[in-house]
Amino acid sequence: MISQGIHTIDTGFVRPRFDAAYLVVHDGHGAFIDCGTNHSVPRLLEALGEAALDASQVDWLILTHVHLDHAGGAGELMAHLPNAQLVVHPRGARHMIDPSQLWEGAMAVYGEAVMMQAYGRLRPVPRERVVEAPDGHIVDLHGRILRCIDTPGHAKHHLAVYDQHANVCFTGDTFGLSYREFDTDKGPFIMPTTTPVQFDPDALHASINRLLALKPKAMYLTHYGRVEQVEQLAIKLHEMIDAMVAVALHCAELPERHAQLTKELTELYAARTAEHGWRGDRDALLHWLGMDIELNAQGLGVWLDRERA
Ligand SMILES: [Zn+2]
């Protein structure tokens, strides 16, 4: 789908319509926002062809954050883009220059076999091609202003990108996730993602409100695609953050905490998707959300441990 020069690219990570990257085209120049993994790079280059751009006409690769489903392919992609600079949150920059710590961190969550198959070996980005983007940093895409907004909550190294020209935001994981499989006549279903290890509910509430204050007409989520009716969705997101925190606090002192968190999150999502008019059964719910339930449970566990400390 293309709207105002914005191309949605399915990176192919995990399954169709799970993980998006975006290509913004303006006046013969391009900027990628997020890039999926090493395995996504051929798809990104193909999207350039469809947009009638040459790899040398890409000026920027902007990362919303350095989680590997967004940034894992950055080094590999940059090697194909001779004139591009990498724009990344100041807290994420060193991990793109030397990805070893990122690799180790993800290994602890996913294990080596999954890592190699899902992401491939991470390729470093040369230091001189990395631009750190603090809050308010402006990326100039040949006159089209893309503003970086510090949006902690999902991760401390997270920024969102506001495209003034189209009046839309690229939200990475800050505005939650919304799989198209859960769309009903009530619109999109949306929920926050609390992936380990930096979930911070207060910061996430504040970041969502900051994005909303820009009054964008649409959000472009990495998982997955463009959503409108952003004010309604924000209300749902705020509610769901609070509900997930309540689940976490309820499970905090229970034996087998992780199993309990997983169970209660499943119940929560089953209830909310049903309310939303989605008619899938429990197997279908776990098919689409099983991985998120596991990661959200892990992330809430890490948050509980940090709160206690
Ligand atoms: Zn993330």
Description of the structure:
This protein has 309 residues and is α/β, with parallel strands linked by helices. It folds into two domains: 226 residues, 4-Layer Sandwich (Metallo-beta-lactamase, Chain A); 72 residues, no CATH class. 40% of the residues lie in helices and 19% in strands. The chain contains ten helices and 13 strands. It has a seven-stranded mixed beta sheet with strand order 1-2-3-4-5-6-7. α5 crosses α6. The chain is globular, with a radius of gyration of 19 Å. The structure holds zinc ion (ZN). The site of zinc ion has 6 residues, from loops.
Condensed summary:
By secondary structure, the chain is an alpha/beta fold. Helices cover 40% and strands 19% of the residues.
- How would a textbook summarize the main sheet? 7 strands, mixed
- Say what the CATH topology of the largest domain is: Metallo-beta-lactamase, Chain A
Bound molecules: zinc ion
Shape descriptor reads: globular
Question: What's the helix and strand layout?
Answer:
Elements: E1 2-3, E2 6-10, E3 20-26, E4 29-33, H1 41-50, E5 58-62, H2 68-71, H3 74-78, E6 85-88, H4 93-97, H5 100-110, H6 112-118, E7 130-132, E8 138-141, E9 144-150, E10 159-163, E11 168-172, H7 201-213, E12 218-221, E13 225-227, H8 230-251, H9 257-275, H10 282-308
Parallel strand pairs: 4-5, 5-6, 6-7, 11-12
Antiparallel strand pairs: 1-2, 2-3, 3-4, 8-9, 9-10, 10-11, 12-13
Helix pairs in contact: 5-6, 7-8, 8-9, 8-10, 9-10
The protein binds zinc ion.
